[in-house]
């Protein structure tokens, strides 16, 4: 060791668990023993004195957590960045620590008010002194990290803590001599784990298990090759010894009750400065929101999105509309540990309706396609909401809105045109929007309201509310009438369950009644329907009697075979072979249908499109201009349809499985309604209701 190590401690004369500011303190108020705390602290003090000089700061009554000197500040060279405690319970410690540092001649840096940072508890230098690992998520704000980089002239790597038990970085992360790192990976988010893995070679990472982690094994004081800690498993001790360390255990159970152990009780005040570049990858951007921000819950959603995505925020401005109809505006600064993370967050914020501000231009950034069917890495992924992009200072609408596409921009004689395009359709020479600037989406304000209130359970276990299903059916019947009579378009996606559950005759009634203008499904619905029409069974089940017919499964293939002989479903109808059923009605009433193939298809029917790209294109064509999509018990085809459908198209999803309904109606769009019920029953209710309406509703002629 070149320089003697100096450590700051604070005697536990006023130590107590007086309040709860971390999960360890829960249930421990006034449960610690002062005598035992004194004894444990002294033992630690004596051990450390063998390896370092220990300085003391005077404890003060009323500030029981002052023993945890790690949180006094962060020292590098002769500079200290003072802590700004997150919880008021500890803020009173700040002046005492500040005084101590000033008395020792440190240059004291203080962060702006309300920018929390909890010192060496959340910032750990690697033992070579070349870089600083800084935590955020519970006590320290990400925006404090750039100050550390600047004031201490050190590279800062930000790590996000996600487990409340490990609220300070030093509770789960401990850089050791010779480049080793002792840590508990589950305490960090995925991004942070990747960062650690990128920066610390695998043979230097010493991972502790949960038992060691909750015994505060990572909260260790490392001086040269000695590691002082509360307790470690034999396995961990063996690992450390094999790496050349000597492990000293000293019980600190009284301090665990407040959420701290060896490292928390110390602050290293001699951290030699190493020449190193000052850098931080932290990015920040300003985003604007406008609308009924409070009523719609948009601000909450946006701020949650930022935090859940690994970023942090600062609300710079918030102007609240005075009356109910007035809009509010907000300006929020978003920070994230690096460019990839911030782009991810910004993309989601744009979907919520935010406009991202850039320094130089308000326009969307465009990048040329250089390989057909492949977009640049940071291409903007579209959502279902009406979208506009700014080109040459003007907002232009994006055409063919759908989700999961790129926005391609082409120059025409009438100016630039923007259009949603699937990756596979991108052409060399075209440009697509990258990043998240100069893009805005418009969603109905209420479209953010939670979905759960619109999902109705009927036959599902637990709460079943028949009346609520009837209410939805009434509404859908009303919509179907209106759409038909106004020359609109209603499309159905249907799975074979429609046939099994006896829904076929009702679906036929709807087709005959002119309510349906397109049918989307797979091979199965058509085969089941045709089998029923030809043989009275559906996958071998007698639909009249509800029993399986001996050898009935052959019916399935025979039905396919019959249609194959005819050439197509339409030809089977024409030849008089197929005389009833859903497919028959489609042919008879010129309702276009598309059957998308899959790996498990029997046959298939000649009409089934086994080229999936072509099937997707057929679906898209049939959906175009739809006002309503009725999704009947087919998750796969309905999800496919959902991806192609812009917001504003009403989607009604009916399935007996609540998980399917939730998945499908969870598009954050006001227009989707989920109904958990038996689909056959639903269709019969719907037809009944439409029949009732016939007398009362005079259709325009
Ligand atoms: N009760 C203290 C708090 O919650 C414990 C601090 C532990 N210090 C540490 N560096 N982890 O703030």
UniProtKB/TrEMBL annotation:
It holds the Pfam family Saccharop_dh_N. One of its GO terms (biological process) is L-arginine deiminase pathway. Residues 285-385 form the LOR/SDH bifunctional enzyme conserved domain. Residues 474-686 form the Arginine dihydrolase ArgZ/ArgE-like C-terminal second subdomain domain. It comes from the Bacteria. It is an enzyme of class 4 (lyase). GO terms for molecular function: arginine deiminase activity; nucleotide binding; ornithine cyclodeaminase activity. This is ornithine cyclodeaminase. Its cofactor is NAD(+). Its EC number is 4.3.1.12. Residues 386-473 form the Arginine dihydrolase ArgZ/ArgE-like C-terminal first subdomain domain. Keywords: Lyase, NAD, Nucleotide-binding.
């Amino acid at each position: 060791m070149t320089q003697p190590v100096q450590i700051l401690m604070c005697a536990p004369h006023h130590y107590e668990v007086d309040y709860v500011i971390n999960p360890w303190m829960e249930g421990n108020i006034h449960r610690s023993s002062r005598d035992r705390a004194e004894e444990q602290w002294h033992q630690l003090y004596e051990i450390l004195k063998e390896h370092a000089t220990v300085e003391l700061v005077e404890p003060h009554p009323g500030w029981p957590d002052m023993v945890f000197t790690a949180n006094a500040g962060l020292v590098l060279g002769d500079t200290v960045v003072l802590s700004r405690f997150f919880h008021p319970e500890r803020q009173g410690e700040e002046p005492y620590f500040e005084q101590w540092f000033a008395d020792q001649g440190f240059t004291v840096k203080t962060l702006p008010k309300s920018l929390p940072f909890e010192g060496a508890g959340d910032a750990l230098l690697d033992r070579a002194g070349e870089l600083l690992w800084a935590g955020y998520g519970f006590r320290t704000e990400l925006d404090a990290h750039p100050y550390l980089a600047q004031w201490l002239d050190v590279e800062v790597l930000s790590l996000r803590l996600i487990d409340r038990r490990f609220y300070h970085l030093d509770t789960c992360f401990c850089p050791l001599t010779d480049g080793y790192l002792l840590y508990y990976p589950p305490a960090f988010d995925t991004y942070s784990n990747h960062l650690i893995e990128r920066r610390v070679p695998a043979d230097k990472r010493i991972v502790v298990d949960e038992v060691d982690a909750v015994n505060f094994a990572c909260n260790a004081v490392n001086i040269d090759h000695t590691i002082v800690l509360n307790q470690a498993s034999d396995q961990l001790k063996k690992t450390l010894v094999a790496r050349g360390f000597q492990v000293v255990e000293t019980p600190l159970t009284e301090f665990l009750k407040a959420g701290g152990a060896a490292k928390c009780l110390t602050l290293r005040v001699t951290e030699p400065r190493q020449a190193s570049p000052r850098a931080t990858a932290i990015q920040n951007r300003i985003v604007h929101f406008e609308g009924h921000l409070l009523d719609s819950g948009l601000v909450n959603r946006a701020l949650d999105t930022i935090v859940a995505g690994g970023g942090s925020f600062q609300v710079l401005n918030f102007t609240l509309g005075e009356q109910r109809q007035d809009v509010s505006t907000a300006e929020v600064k978003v920070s994230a540990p690096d460019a990839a993370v911030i782009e991810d967050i910004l993309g989601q914020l744009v979907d919520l309706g935010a406009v991202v501000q850039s320094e130089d231009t308000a326009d969307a950034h465009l990048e040329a396609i250089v390989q057909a069917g492949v977009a640049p890495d940071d291409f903007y992924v579209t959502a279902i909401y009406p979208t506009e992009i700014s080109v040459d200072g003007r907002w232009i609408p994006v055409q063919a809105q759908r989700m999961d596409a790129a926005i391609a921009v082409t120059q025409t004689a009438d100016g630039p045109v923007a259009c949603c395009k699937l990756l596979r359709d991108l052409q060399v020479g075209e440009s697509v929007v990258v990043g998240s600037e100069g893009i805005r989406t418009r969603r109905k304000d209420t479209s953010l309201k939670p979905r759960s209130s619109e999902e109705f359970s009927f036959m599902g276990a637990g709460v079943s509310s028949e009346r609520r299903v009837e209410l939805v059916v009434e509404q859908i019947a009303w919509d179907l009438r209106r759409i038909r009579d106004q020359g609109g378009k209603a499309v159905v996606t249907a799975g074979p369950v429609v046939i099994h559950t006896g829904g076929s005759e009702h679906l036929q009634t709807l087709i005959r009644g002119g309510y349906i203008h397109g049918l989307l499904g797979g091979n199965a619905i058509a085969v089941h329907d045709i089998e029923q029409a030809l043989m009275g069974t559906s996958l071998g089940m007698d639909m009249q009697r509800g029993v399986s017919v001996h050898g009935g499964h052959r019916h399935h293939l025979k039905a396919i075979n019959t249609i194959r002989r005819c050439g197509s479903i339409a030809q089977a109808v024409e030849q008089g072979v197929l005389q009833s059923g859903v497919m028959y009605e489609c042919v008879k009433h010129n309702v276009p249908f598309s059957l998308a193939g899959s790996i498990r298809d029997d046959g298939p029917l000649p009409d089934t499109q086994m080229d999936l790209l072509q099937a997707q294109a057929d679906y898209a064509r049939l959906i175009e201009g739809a006002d309503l999509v009725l999704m009947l018990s087919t998750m796969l085809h309905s999800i496919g349809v959902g991806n192609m459908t812009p917001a504003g198209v009403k989607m009604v999803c009916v399935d007996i499985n609540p998980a399917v309904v939730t998945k499908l109606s969870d598009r954050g769009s006001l227009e989707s309604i989920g109904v958990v019920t038996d689909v056959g029953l639903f269709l019969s209710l719907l037809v009944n209701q439409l029949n009732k309406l016939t007398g009362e509703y005079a259709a325009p002629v």
